Amino acid sequence: MAVSDLFKPLTFLHGPAMRNRFMLAPLTSQQSDFDGTASEYDQYWMEQLAQGGYGLIQTSAATIEAGGIAFERQLGIHSDDHLPGLTKMASAIRNGGALSAVQLHHAGHRAKPSIGGIPAPASSMTLEGIKAITTEEVERIRDSFITAAKRAQQAGFNGISVHGAFGWILSEFMSPNLNDRTDKYGGSLENRARFTIEVIEGIRQACGPDFQIGWRLSIERYGLLLEELREITASIFDRELIDYLDLALWDSAQVVREGTFKGKTMLSVFTELPRKGVRLGVAGKIMSAQRAGELLDEGCDFVLIARAAILQRDFPLQVKENPMYDSPQLPVMANYLRQGGLSERFIDTMRGWQTFVKPGSL
Fold this sequence. Notes:
With 362 residues, this protein is an alpha/beta fold. The chain folds into two domains: 3-327, Aldolase class I (TIM Barrel), CATH 3.20.20; 329-362, no CATH class. It has twelve helices and eight strands. An eight-stranded parallel barrel has the order 1-2-3-4-5-6-7-8, surrounded by five helices. Strand 5 (212-217), helix 6 (226-239) and strand 6 form a beta-alpha-beta unit. The longest helix is centred in the middle third of the chain and has 21 residues, at 135-155. It is globular. The relative contact order is 0.14. The model has no long low-confidence stretch (mean pLDDT 96).
């Protein structure tokens, strides 16, 4: 498949079509105000991206409850006070021609007390001295996801993406290692997936038929089982509960090392599933035009750009201009990011990523 195919429109089950196959991955920048309000740095970042040629732009992970915070200066969507800033972000994305989505996030047991987080583990065994949240508390957090989605809709976003990856709360409940509950949210795979399904179904009911729902899924670490996640994904595809799956891999080319699917690419385990009208995309070291094009050949409907977007805000436009485009080699000097328009707050965040910013560079 030619790189030019990346610029074909993509329709969804709900809402408008994406103008091309480039989706901006949700990128944690830690540049919001301390109360979760979108800062001037958030707005400038969004304005840059809005002119970058993407088909859909996701925000960074936004807290659906104040106590679900994982990162200092994390974007928030848990209060109506956040609406003015979110509305401005949605407007900038819309004016640039892309679709927009807020990534909805709750840190679960990984909520950080030092910045106001209240750990909410699925199991009493996960964190010493902290009991599992009750059934009623699970239902409260479920309802907070739904309320946050309605807030995103009110702000003018085309949809939301439910963060079900990396051991955050929905991912945590999926894991047999982190979820030993005996209520309706624990035990069987169906019960462990119930939290996620209720969030998705509740958002659809609350936000109506024109609102887009994405779901971010990771399949590594935290005791997650590939076979189980494939089974749940197959059911979600079959029921067309979401508009798109955002498969978050560390490397889009990685291979399964053990178990039923040993030797297959992680991606193929999911692209082989019948997906009806649901779209599937992948994130993971997509740094070049050629790799993005290859992923369409491998069964993806779209690609999620992360690190390459931080290096070059207008990655899709670079690819359109040059089908052989490749991102700058990592690590880069901090001044390279600064000259590209990244805030000092964002640059400091990227210093925490291995091999992204050259150590000691000013």
